[in-house]
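Lecture 7, part B: from sequences to assemblies.

Below are the input chains for today's worked example.
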Amino acid sequence: VETVFYGLCDHTQKNNCEPGPQKYFMSFFRMRSNSITRPTRRNFLRGLMAAVATSGIFPVFNYTAAHADTASPDAASIEIAALGKRIRELEPKTAVRLDKLARGTAGLKARDSVDWAIADKARLKLTERSRVAAEFIREEVVFVDGWLLANSEAATALLYAAASAPSGHQNQTQVVK
Amino acid sequence: MILDGSSIPEGKTFDADICVVGSGAAGLTLALDLTRRGIKVVMIESGGLVFDGRSNQLLEVEMAGRTTETLVKTTRERFFGGTTNHWGGVCRAFDAFEFEPHPWMPYSGWPISRADLDPYYASAASLLGLPEVSRTFDAKALGVADRPRLVKEGEPDVEPIIWRRIPDEHLRMGQWRRQEVETSQLLTCVMNTSIVEIHPDASLKRIASLEGRAFGGHTLHFRARDFVLCTGAIENARLLLVSDSVVKGGLGNEHDLVGRFFMDHPANGISQVLLTDPAKGPTQEQFLAKSELLGWTTTPAARAKYHLQGFMSWVWPRTLAPQPQFPQELAMSKLTGLPTDKRDNDQPRYLEIVLNWEQAPNPDSRVMLSDKRDIFGVRKPLVHWDVLPQDLASAHKSMELISLAVARSGLGRVRWPDITNPLTTGGGHQMGTTRMANDPKQGVTNANCRVHSLENLFIGGSSLYPTGGWEHPTFTIVTLALRLADHLAARVKTP
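Predicted structure of the full complex, as C-alpha cells:
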C-alpha cells in the first residue's frame, strides 16, 4: 500500500509534491481502508468506540492516548518512513547497524514490531540535540539524497520505515545482498 | 590600430613579430603586454567591436555525450574582448595543490608550479585592479572579519575561501582596453576576420602563415615570427585539427592528443543551506559584497585522504524564482527541528549556494570535427563531453564533507541537488584540449605553452590546463598570458 502511495507523489516533479497534510492523510487512510465503504466504516468505528468506552476494560482510556497509538501518521512521519526506506535501499549494511541502534535506544528487541507511537517516542530520544551534535563531531553520519543525517537521525528514519510496514517490522537482513 | 578586415583588399598580407589570434582575456592581455615591450603585433578577431549575429553564428558546435550545447554556445563570445564580454569577474589564483600530480587522478600534474606563476599572478591582480589573494583564509587580513561564517575555523576537511571580484571598470576588456589598442603604433587589430587554416612551412616544424577569411569572403594572410592561438578551448583545438591540408590529422596532433581531455566545471544549479534559526540569520545578503564572494572548498588534506577532485561552493545572490520544496523536507523538519514552513516569506529560512566541481582529465572527452561546415566552409567542432563515475563519487564525498562542517557549526543543514541528473551541465569553463605536459605523449604543449612539434606555434588560454581545479579559470588565463608574453619577448630579442 505504501509503495503505491509514495508513487503518487513524485518529489522530482515541480508542483507535484505538495499535497498538504490533509491530502496525505486522506490518501493514506483511504488506501488502508479501501475494502470498507465510508458510511459503513464510520458506523463501525462509532460502535467500537462506544463499546470500548462502556466496557470498563480500559478505565483510564482517553482519546489522546488512543490517537497516539493508532495508525494515523502525519505527513512528516510518512516522509521520514520514506527516507528510512531510501537509506535501507542505498545503504543496506549501514541500515542493519543503525536498526540495532534505534531498537536498542527504544528498548526493542530485533523481532519486536514497531508502530508509529513507538517510533515517535524513540525519535525524541534519538534526535536529542546533544546526541546528534556528538555524532557530528565523531563523523557518525549518513549521506542520502543530498541530506546529511547523524546516525541517530537515520536510525530514527529506519524505525519509521518499520512502523509503516503492514507488520510493523522490517527484516533488515532480507535486503542485504 | 583597429582595422575592419571586410574592407581590406583581397590577398593582403600582414607582417609582424608576433601574430595573436583572438582578442579575449588571453589574446588582448598578451598582445598589449608585447607592444608595451616594443614588439610589433598583429591581432586577429573574428567578430566586430560589438556583438554581431554573423560572428556569433561561428560559435556553433555539434554535441555528443552530455548535452550541454546551450552552455557551450552561450558561454562564449566572438567579438572584441571575447568572453570577457559576459565575464562575472570572479577571480582566484590556482592553489599550489592544483599544480601537483595526484596519484588518485590519472593525467594530473602541471609542468609548472604555483611558484612559477606567483609573480604573474601578482601582475595579473594589479592589471585587473585586484588585491592579491592569499592561500590562507585570514578573515581579518582579507577584510571580511565582519562576515558570517557557516563553517567553523579548524574544520579538518573544509575551509572557507574567498574570491575577489573584478571592479566594474576592469570587467569588459574589450571596453577598457580598446583605447590602448586604437592608439597603439605597434598593434594592428584586424576585425571581422576568421582564421580558416594554419599553414606550416616546408619543414613542417614551423608555421609560415595564417590564412584568414573576412566577412565578404576575401582572403587575408598573416605572417610572423611566432604565432599564438587564443581562441578558447574549443576553437584552439578546432584550428589545429582543421589545419590538415598538409599534415594529416592536423597540426600538433602527432600523438592524437589535440582536442582530448576536454573539461568543464560541472554545475547543478542551486543548493540550499536550511537555517536552524532563520530569525537569527545569517542572511544571504550578509555574505555578499561587490568586491568578493565567500564560500567553501575541501582542504588538500581531505582531498589526499579521500582521493577527491576539486569542489567549490559559494553564496550567490538569491535567485528571483521561488525554489521548489525539497524532497523529504517535511521529514527533515521533524527529524532535525529545522523550520520548513513554506509560508514564511518574510524571513528566508535558507541561504542559496551554488557549486562547481572538478572533472578528472578524461581523454575520451574531446573536441573533434563535425562533417558540417560553417559559413567559411570550415568544419564545425564536434564536442563529446562526459562526466565520469569518478567525478560523481568525488563530488558526492565533497558535498558530504561540507554538509558535515556546516552541521557542526550548528547554523543549519545543507541540501544538495542530485548531481547524477543527466541535466548536469558544464559551467562554461571549457578547458584542457591542448594541455601542457613535459612529455609530448602526454600533452600538446610544453611548459612554455608551445606546441611540442612546432617551433613557433604557441597557445594561450584555458585549453592549456592539464587539470581544471575548482578555481574559476579566467584569472589564470590572464596570468599565463603575461607569463607567455615574457617568454615571447625574450625570443624576439634572440637573433
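Note for the exam: The CA atoms of residues 365 and 385 of chain B lie 5 Å apart. Keep this in mind when comparing with the next example.
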